[in-house]
Amino acid sequence: EKPLSCKSMVFQEITEEDAFEGYIKAEGLTICAFSASWCGPCTKLTPQFKNLSQKYPEVPFLKAMEDENEELFEKLEVTVFPTIRLYRNGTQIVELKGPDIDDIEAALLKQLGRTSHATGGDDAESVGSHVARAPSDTESGGGGGGGGGG
Q1: What pLDDT is recorded for position 147?
Q2: What is this structure's pTM?
Q3: I want to staple 34 with a disulfide (CB 3.0 to 4.6 A). Which of 20, 78, 87, 123 is the partner?
Q4: C-alpha torsion angle, residues 26, 105, 57, 47 (rounded to 10)
Q5: Active site residue 39
């Protein structure tokens, strides 16, 4: 009754390089989290990443642990944990180093050609951390002149 049996493997832990290759070379978008057991932020990210995979069942979510895939990590030059990479048809298109789950979802939505319901459609501004923080403006503006109550 469920024709989606092959699609239901939304969240896949990778332990072999050829399994990894097989997934990322498949047509469409694939996302992989590269983690390590000793990495605190990775441990925190994993359940959130799993939840995200439920939200986007059309995208295979992979998780590879450095402990089990040292050669793969070396080959892919993964040195920061967690690293999230998005692949399309076998080609890496996005890399996020040490992201939070919102960064990941934003990147995913961008690749899927959708905008996040949170950003209300104006996604040119909302995605990307280049939205300038200008300390000089805020520092110089206002704080003085609160004296004289004599």
Answers
A1: 61
A2: 0.71
A3: 78
A4: 110
A5: yes
